[in-house]
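[step 3/7] inverse_fold.run input=structure_tokens len=223
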């Protein structure tokens, strides 16, 4: 388990991440610390990333009319599938808590366990922030394609003239859905951003290419 403290020292086995006592934390240090934590705790990192990315994207869906795009209320859409005759409030609660919110976390676990390693040949085998972000955004856009091509026209609103990839609803709907999923992917990539590791001769985890125990760069203020 990785813990965080404020000191000038560092635990050489990499299990405790110590940040230097230099006043307010530099944002780059915080980002590096998060990368260390996600690297050492990939499932927990995926759960956190899924929750945050889904929440921010869901809120973005409500704000889309502010830029001239249709509102995307995925909680209501999900609730309407299982409780079509319930009140809007009940549909929203059931759709968000028991369907949409959980879906976002489950899809993120699929991203971390399956998609992330499979995408390495496409975006490069180096585990860098740019490569991690590319994997996440492409994953988000793939989910957007799934939403437009199947879920929206055949699950949420069947027999309503959706057309091929929901183009029957107009171009703004297509843009809105892809924008929603791009926001999801961006936030996913910001949080689920592990670093490349290797096992040293003494069994310690090191940051690949540095020879340093995990977290040393963060504790020294390097980026």
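[step 3/7] decode complete -> sequence:
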């Amino acid at each position: 388990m990785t813990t965080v403290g404020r000191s000038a020292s560092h635990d050489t086995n990499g299990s405790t991440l110590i940040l230097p006592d230099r006043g307010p934390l530099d944002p780059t240090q915080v980002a590096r610390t998060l990368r260390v934590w996600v690297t050492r705790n990939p499932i927990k990192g995926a759960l956190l990333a899924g929750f945050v990315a889904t929440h921010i994207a869901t809120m973005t869906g409500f704000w889309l009319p502010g830029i001239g795009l249709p509102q995307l209320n995925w909680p209501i859409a999900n609730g309407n599938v299982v409780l079509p005759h319930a009140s809007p409030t009940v549909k929203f609660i059931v759709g968000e808590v028991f369907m949409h919110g959980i879906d976002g976390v489950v899809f993120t676990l699929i991203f971390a366990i399956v998609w992330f390693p499979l995408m390495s040949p496409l975006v490069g085998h180096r585990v860098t922030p740019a490569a991690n972000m590319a994997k996440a955004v492409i994953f988000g856009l793939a989910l957007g394609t799934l939403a437009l091509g199947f879920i929206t026209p055949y699950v949420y609103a069947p027999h309503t003239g959706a057309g091929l990839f929901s183009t029957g609803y107009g171009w703004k709907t297509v843009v809105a859905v892809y924008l929603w999923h791009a926001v999801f992917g961006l936030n996913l990539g910001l949080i689920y951003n592990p670093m490349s590791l290797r096992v040293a001769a003494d069994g310690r985890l090191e940051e690949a290419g540095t020879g340093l125990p995990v977290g040393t760069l963060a504790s020294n203020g390097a980026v």
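[step 4/7] annotate
Residues 1-40+196-223 form one domain.
Confidence is low (pLDDT under 50) at residues 1-18, 216-223.
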